[in-house]
């Protein structure tokens, strides 16, 4: 209901703008957001990217965004509204918009679409994502060093490959420091519910975890960790304000450079369907300052970050043993290939848990 | 702190906003008005509660701002359904949409700010009792207030003349009107009480639960409160049990996962709603007169003029 209204409102706004005289030569760019722009996490970072892009191109570009668009079939209407309103380039910024984006793209062959974190493309649909597991690897190393109880607490959203590969990357790295390290995983089945995220953090700490990591979008877990005197990693954005003594680092998503590059291509008429999967090297993710840890741990983290950027350190380096004890096939020779990471649906050895629904 | 104590403390915190919002809705529905806008009133209460507390530095002022915001929004609902006799279901849904938008508007400049949370009670000696001390004597004011409110509401509904009239209005507004009771005024007060409770429940989230404001932070708790009223079959005693049961299921499923018990989390998340459906079936099959819902629930009343 709300979505329809939002979409309708956006259409009205877009329509009224398009009658303006100057609107004709402006490139219209649309964005579909999962959460509110003020979520301080995932959507907030996408919006920072949009603003950086606007700053770059000034009055050559005009943007419209729809926030709070839930994933799944319902998002189709919102995406179509943007296409119908004359947007030539549309960014759909969550995994769950994959099928709806493709469906709308087939109806509007002259509009270009960019889908974040998905794996299905078309001639007018590109995909882009961050190699978040690179950041997770560094977090795993830090966690392995900093955990006194040897138990990590992990708040997970949905059992999709991106989240599972994050858990695996963390554990593989942590195991190189402490082979007996354990992880407790709680699936909250939501990207965004501050209360539930806080409750999950409390439950994990009460069960002995002393380092909290999350793959959900609000700073609630950071705040709980700070309150309980534990350590935590931020997610998506800088969360140091919510735990000055708790945040070790944070994987910050940095979409600005990508949005600038894609809009530039669109303006120059060189846009084509691509798959961009960029990491620390391309600065699509950036690590927040390493804080609240001794100097040797900080040094280790910085060295790992540099090595990943140089391509010397591969988070999914073989051999990798799956939870069931079988060795995972190494499709890229020395490490897992991108397809294996993008479709990851198994846990590595040492995780005492079951993937929900498996 | 033992694990059981920690779980009980978390359950109390998780149940309190549900109990507060559901208490208000119970009284509203007992007067025959179905207000589906609880989620909207809650989120506006959260935004205004945070704004009030942040601007003045006082949690009490924040709580009052949250309540007032809930009341203001409920008056919009009252205007539509009581004065203009609009369909209550449609008006309630519209109220939620309106509330979500308004809260984003009010709250946008407070996103990212922090406040200190509501203080917890501390009575030397009593609060220090192992296990029971912190559970019984170490909560914040919202927890005690939520219990006081439902006890007060129960006493009002069943032990006072005013409560009897309110229930009469909810069961048969035509008869109540014929007896000379001001049906619309009574309903308006019930709606306002519901708004105040929902606003307070919303304010509890940024003031005590997770001390920051983010748009959409109620995350469906208003809808759970609505389900809770049905679950309680409109009885205050069952409402308390239901609120803590719903809260307990939420917390226990998190702990079950952390402990690796292997119960599907999706199933546990759905459990409160499943319980509500089962209770509805049991109510309708009960031999003692079928539904316990207020007979005039959801019907508009237009007095003869």
Automatic annotation (TrEMBL), chain A:
**Key word DNA-binding present in the record?**
yes
Q: Name one Pfam family in it.
A: Bmp
- Residue ranges the record marks as coiled coil: none
Keyword annotations of the record: DNA-binding, Signal
**Protein's UniProt keywords contain Signal:** yes
- InterPro entries, A to Z: ABC-Purine-Binding, Peripla_BP_I, PnrA-like
Superkingdom, natural source:
Bacteria
CDD domains with a match to the protein in the record: PBP1_BMP-like
For this record, an example GO cellular component is: plasma membrane
Q: Where would one find the signal peptide in this protein?
A: 1-23
Q: Name one GO molecular function term.
A: DNA binding
Q: Which residues form the ABC transporter substrate-binding protein PnrA-like domain?
A: 27-308
Q: Return the protein name.
A: DNA-binding protein
Naturally occurring in which organism (per UniProt): Bradyrhizobium lablabi
From TrEMBL, chain B:
| Compartments it resides in | Cell membrane
Listed GO CC annotations? plasma membrane
Name of protein: ABC transporter permease
Matching PANTHER family, A to Z?
ABC TRANSPORTER PERMEASE PROTEIN, SUGAR ABC TRANSPORTER INTEGRAL MEMBRANE PROTEIN-RELATED
Kindly list any coiled-coil regions of this protein: none
Please list every transmembrane segment annotated in the UniProt record, as residue ranges: 31-52, 59-83, 89-111, 141-158, 188-210, 222-246, 266-283
| InterPro entries the record matches | ABC_transp_permease
Any single GO molecular-function term of the entry would be: transmembrane transporter activity
- Tell me the membrane topology, using the record's own terms: Multi-pass membrane protein
Q: Which organism is it from?
A: Bradyrhizobium lablabi
* This protein's UniProt keywords: Cell membrane, Membrane, Transmembrane, Transmembrane helix
Q: Which domain of life is it from?
A: Bacteria
